[in-house]
Amino acid sequence: MTFLPVCEPLLGGNELEYVTDAVATGWISSSGKYVTAFEQAFAAYCGVRHGIAVCNGTVALHLSLVVLGIGPGDEVIIPDFTMMASALAVCYTGALPVFADAERGTWNVSPAAVAEKITPRTKAVMAVHIFGNPCDMDALRSLCDARGIILMEDAAEAHGATLHGVKAGALSLIAAFSFFANKNITTGEGGMVITDDDELASRCRYFKNLCFPLNAPRTYLHADIGFNYRMSNLHAAIGLAQTEKADDYKAMRVTNGSIYRARLSEIPGVLLQQDQAGSENVHWMNGLCLTPEYGRTRDVLVDHLRVHGVDTRLFFNGMHRQPALLRYGCDCGGEYPVSDMLADHGFYLPSASSLRPEDIHRVCDLIASFRA
């Protein structure tokens, strides 16, 4: 019985060649040609002019918030159903994350729920494209533009996803990506901020490198509190090779997602993520949520799959359930029915780009045959 992990990286291009070149030439730190080449290639792939490579996706979010001027006294509305990093990045600035429930269909943040959470202190809305599925950016942009609120993207899970033909990351003023090992494009650990705004890009480069001046000699006098968020040339070498194969890897994920959906949609009691019109989901993870009609609980099914060699991961717990955020001072009261449903009954399945159709059918057969 072959074990199927939730995800594993696909290194099917020039990764070894580029990393070997970086090592052989001695350019292994944050200086070196691959950092710039990766930034330019990934920005071009996303359809924007600037890419700023950093050491992970969480700091990409933090850096984005810093250059937007987010700080103490500000509020940033984020999805309740998201990875904890979205909230933590806001906390790092001293601002307050405010939570909005998800849509039952797309599992993305609900624009109606966002509208209810806007206050005079709201400085930004962070749209998180959950599992590679683009948010309703049209509705969010209308909300934000009408009130002078910044719209930004947490696109950590959405490399290559599109809405009306525009790629994730190019749908707002500034966006953050992650290149963790399970992402559609990976550097092992890494992240990037992308933007079309020249001033924001310059501020990102300034703050990510300890606030050394960008266009002046180093005197080791620092005017601002900066961060060491640099990406190494070794990681960037992997990232460049991955970006060269981005369309191939995206096609693999989309194909796998289509097979999963076709099979799982036939099983009573299985609730799947839905796409909005005009969007292209890149299926970073293929998840499902069980309803009572399935006849067994989520945890029992997860155990059954594990016994049969299929790895899974539970969905995120909502931000309103996080003890750390309650202690930080967030308002964790209120009702989040969709987020709670997903957290209590949802999980995701093996989703690697290299997954074979027969692997997917094996997983779906196990789920279908186990229904009570």
UniProtKB/TrEMBL annotation:
One of its GO terms (biological process) is polysaccharide biosynthetic process. SUPFAM superfamilies: PLP-dependent transferases (SSF53383). The active site is at K183 (proton acceptor). This is Putative PLP-dependent enzyme possibly involved in cell wall biogenesis. It comes from Desulfocurvibacter africanus PCS. The modification N6-(pyridoxal phosphate)lysine is found at K183. One of its GO terms (molecular function) is transaminase activity. Signal peptide: none annotated.
